[in-house]
Amino acid sequence: MFSKAVLLVIFQCFWIADMIGQLGKFVIEGTSDVSAVIHSVSGSSHSTALDLLNDNAFSGTDWRIINDGGIFRLLSATNNFTTPGNENFRLFNSGTMLLPRGSEASVGNLSGVLVVGNENGLNLALDGNEILARNNNTDGDLYIQSGTTGNTFMNGSGVI
Question: Rounded to two decimals, what is the model's pTM?
């Protein structure tokens, strides 16, 4: 999902934010009405955030990356976070990932909570209660244990 270099930069930004926390916030001005803001935010514990903003308010998607007491969170909004925004991803200290947003997986569009594979080719779409195999957003074949000699079990009731 993220390269090691990107994650390193993100966590370095959090370290910088902790170092300048007493200043309130640190703003990096960009061009074309964009900016990055590192600041403290209210949360369940001491939290630091990096906001990637489209400064033309209410135009485009803004992103907020939060270190919420060691829990990595990713939020999105379209209003420069004048409201709390929507949580898209959470990574807990245990390594557990939570994807709280998304849509019902279906054929015919790029839907689902998690899509694995090529968006215009073979992919798996997952939501809270189903897995769909798709081929270019049409019905696809689902292979389980294909090309192996391993057994496949369903509900622990035996080999199928």
Answer: 0.63
